[in-house]
Every structure is written in C-alpha cells, then in structure tokens.
Task: inverse folding
C-alpha cells in the first residue's frame, strides 16, 4: 500500500488543482487502487474540508481521508499529529509532502522508483532551485552554510520524504518530529539515499510563509542537533571572546604615538565583539525557539485531552471499507 500524508490550512483556492494533479500522478505511477491520501486539516475555517469530502465521495481512483487537528498546530505539528494517526505496515510505503505545489508531485513516480531500487532505505529529497526572491535566496544560502558547519549534516531535507513502513514507528515516537518534521527524522540517523528536486511555485502563486517564519523554522532545526551545535557555538564563543580580550589588551598596551595601529586593533575588536554577540544571540534564540515550539505542541495536546506521544489506533482495511463516508472524513478518521 502507498500511503501519502500532507497537511493544510485554509487552502480552498488550490485544493482542486492539487487533487487533479495528484490523481494524474498516481495514474502515471501505476498505483491506482493502492493509494491512500491522508490530509491533515490544521483547523481551517474555509471550505477546504467540504471540498475534500466531496472529492472523496466522487473519486474512484484514490481514497482520501481527512484528519482533523484539535487546534492550529502549525505545519510541522500538523504533519506529526497526522503521522501518529496512521498504522503503517512494514511493507507499506509512506510519502510525506507539502500540498501547496512547491513540492513537485509530478516527481513522485521517480521518487517511488528510487525507493524501489533502494529497498529498506528512506529517500530524502533536498530542494534545488527555488522560485523565491533574491533576498530569500541569499538568506537561505547563508543558512545552509551555517547548518552544514554546525550540524555536520551533508543534506538539508524537507517534508518531501519517502519512508519505508518499518521506519514509521520510530518516527511516531520522536517528540522532536512535532517541531521540525524532516530534521527530526534526519536526527534518527535512518539508512537513506538522497536526491535533489527543484522547488516549484505555489499553486496560488504566493506562499503564506514570510522570511521571519522561515528564520524561526531554521533556528528550531539547528537546535534539534543540540549535542553538536551547542558545543561548536560555545567553542566559537570562547575563541572569539579570547581574541576580543587579546586585541583590546594589545591596543591598550601600545605606545600612545602608535595611533594608526590602535585604530586598526579597535576595529578588529569591534568586529570580533559583533561576532561574539551574534553567536550568543544565535544560541539563545535557537534554544528559545525550540523550547517554545515543544511547549506549544505539548499544551495543544493537553488541551485536546490526549497525552503527548500517544498513538491512537487506526481502523484496519476491512473496517475502513465498511465505514460510512461521514466516519471516514470525521475527526481522527484515518
């Protein structure tokens, strides 16, 4: 069985286009009749769920099941919430992705083929070219350099993943998956192969995320690898802090008539001080972002009346086929 998982909030304008392209992709991949699409509704207040229900009742090609989040969990929290509703058999294949069009669903057949040629391994997809502003591309290139240096990871995955069914229980049990879906999976060190696919423009033409949201998302991702990141940042803090103190002492100790040399040393001290402040700010902001994300998801789980980490049972195939459409589209139906 091929199980697909995605999440959305207030996407009534793009769902028809997404569903049409997804069905076409399933036909091209030759997996019609063996596909279940789970879509997590992250507390939408438009007609998104109604559109999905109508499609699910009329579609004979794929089975669509909507999972209702108890509150707005954000994209990563919603993906994790949906993942925990699934019962995936060891021989099943789970594909996770964003349904806004930026993850190219037309690439799914090639991803499935890559997974088939590497049995038992996860397929991690790194985004190549992006249809973004120049400012975003500059910030993202800078972030990739920082991420790879601090974490020692060679790949920067996103929600577009192929996961063998045998690996799913370990991912469901990881609380970090609620705050950064792809990085938490990478942190589990699964056997994987990596590939690159370009990122498309969004179906609606404009992303709902802004630069500040993406920066926060990136900071949280860094702190998932806290064992390495914190140690490296502290080492850099001591290194640049010591250099700052040395340069200041050297500038103060120079003869009064060495004005030019003192000016140079002062500017070096200022630059070094800026680096120290920046490193400390990076460490503090990333740690706070991670703590707030974890606390928010834990509070949402408590408010929903279910302990964090619990995995509700999914109906088996026979039960699902005998369920009424309203039950299969209701909250928690999966």
Result:
């Amino acid at each position: 069985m091929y199980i697909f998982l995605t999440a959305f909030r207030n996407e009534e304008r793009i769902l028809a286009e997404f569903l049409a392209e997804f069905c076409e992709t399933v036909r091209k991949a030759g997996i019609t009749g063996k596909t279940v699409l789970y879509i997590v509704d992250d507390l939408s207040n438009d007609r998104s769920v109604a559109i999905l229900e109508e499609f699910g009742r009329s579609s004979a090609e794929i089975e669509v099941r909507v999972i209702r989040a108890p509150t707005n969990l954000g994209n990563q929290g919603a993906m994790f919430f949906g993942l925990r509703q699934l019962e995936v058999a060891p021989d099943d294949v789970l594909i996770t992705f964003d349904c806004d069009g930026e993850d190219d669903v037309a690439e799914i057949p090639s991803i499935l083929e890559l997974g088939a040629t590497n049995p038992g391994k996860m397929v991690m997809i790194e985004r190549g070219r992006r249809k973004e502003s120049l400012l975003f591309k500059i910030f993202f290139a800078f972030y990739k350099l920082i991420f790879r240096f601090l974490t020692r990871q060679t790949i920067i995955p996103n929600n577009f993943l192929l996961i063998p069914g045998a690996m799913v229980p370990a991912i469901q049990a990881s609380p970090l998956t609620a705050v950064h879906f792809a990085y938490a999976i990478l942190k589990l060190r699964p056997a994987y192969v990596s590939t690159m696919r370009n990122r498309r423009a969004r179906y609606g033409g404009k992303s709902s995320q802004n630069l500040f949201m993406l920066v926060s998302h990136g900071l949280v991702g860094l702190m998932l690898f806290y064992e390495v990141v914190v140690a490296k940042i502290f080492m850099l803090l001591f290194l640049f802090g010591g250099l700052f103190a040395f340069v200041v002492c050297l500038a103060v100790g120079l003869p009064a008539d060495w004005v030019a040399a003192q000016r140079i040393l002062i500017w070096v001290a200022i630059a070094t001080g800026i680096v120290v402040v920046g490193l400390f700010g990076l460490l503090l902001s990333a740690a706070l972002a991670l703590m707030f994300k974890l606390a928010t998801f834990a509070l949402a789980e408590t408010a929903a009346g279910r302990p964090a980490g619990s995995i509700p049972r999914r109906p088996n195939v026979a039960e699902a086929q005998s369920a009424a459409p309203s039950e299969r589209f209701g909250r928690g139906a999966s």
